[in-house]
Design a protein that fits this description.
Elements (H helix, E strand, L loop, with lengths): L2 E5 L3 H13 L3 E5 L2 H11 L3 E4 L8 H5 L1
Parallel strand pairs: 1-2, 1-3
């Protein structure tokens, strides 16, 4: 099963995307900020990351680095 990590600080966007992806057969993992996103990435090594660039504390560009 392909996996997708959704990193977004907006709970509605996170829930909507993970719910949709799960219904389409993906393993969807969510994180609410950059630090959690990095941790979840290291734990799950997803096939795809959907990343909000404007995150509090550690922004999306720092996550990419």
């Amino acid at each position: 099963m392909k996996s997708v990590l959704v990193i977004d600080d907006d709970p509605l966007i996170r829930k909507t995307l993970t719910s949709y992806l799960s219904k389409k057969g993906f393993e969807a993992v969510a994180a609410e900020d950059g630090e959690e996103g990095i941790q979840k990435y290291e734990e799950h090594i997803p096939d795809l990351v959907i990343l909000d660039i404007r995150l509090p504390d550690v922004d999306g560009l720092e996550v990419l680095g």
